[in-house]
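Quick log. Single chain, no ligands specified.
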Amino acid sequence: MDLSSVKMVVTDMDGTLLNSRHEVSPRFFELFDVLRQKGILFAAASGRQYNSIIDKLYPIKDELIVIAENGGFAMQNSHEIVSTPLDFGIRGEILDLLEPLENTHPVLCAKDNAYLKNSSVDFLEKLKEYYTEYQMLEDLKEFEGEVMKIAVYHGESSERYIYPAVRHLEGDLKVKVSGANWVDLSHKNAHKGFALEKIQKQYGISSKETMVFGDYNNDLEMLALADYSFAMANAHPNVLKAARYRTHSNDDFGVERILEQLIEDLG
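-> predicted structure:
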C-alpha cells in the first residue's frame, strides 16, 4: 500500500484517535506536526461537542478542521464551514418517543452548549467527558434555540434499547448508533460524510487523496469518501466490513501506526 498520494487525513475521536481513557497520545501530536509541515490537511470528526473536541486537541486547535456533532457542525479557525441544524418541529416528537424509555438520557446539542433534564443529574459525570459546556433544564421541550442533534444515552446498550424506538424515523432523519451507549438523531444531511464532502470540494481533494479512520456506524458515510479508509481493530462489524483496510486498536496506536507509514511514503 502506497500512501504517497494522500493530501488529507480525517479521524474519528472516541474509539479511534482517543484511547480507552479518552486520551490523545503525545506521539500523535508529534506526527501531526510532521504532517503539517508536509502540507497534509487534518480534520477531527466526532459526535462530540465542538468545545469538547477542541479541549482534546487544544495544542493544534488553530491548525485543523473540526467536524462536530456527527457532521452537523464544522469549523476551521473560527470560520463556520457546515451548519445543518435539526428541524424544530421534529424535536418534540423525538422527545415524546424517548419519554417512556427507562435508563435513557436525551441531550439537546447546540453549537456551543448542551442541554439535559434536571432529572438526569446521575448521568452528569458521563456527560462531562463528551460535553464540556452544558446546562440543566426542567423541560427540554421548552428550549427554543437551535439544536444540531439530539444525542441519547442508555446505561446498558443504545443499539438494543434506544434504536428500536426511533429507527422508523430513518429516511426523514439521520439516526445513528454512534457508540455502545449512544444514539444520535439529526437532520438527514447532518452526518460526517456530508461535512467531509463539502471540505473535499472546498480544497479540491479527491477520494484518492483522502485517508479516513473510524470505528462506529456514524463513521460509515465518511469512510465511503476515502480510498484509504481504515477500520480500527476494535471497530463495529459494519465498519470492519465497509473499510478497505484495517489497523490496530485505539489502545494500540492504530492511527499513529498508519500516520508513521504515511510520513515514510511521503518522503
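The chain has a mean pLDDT of 94.
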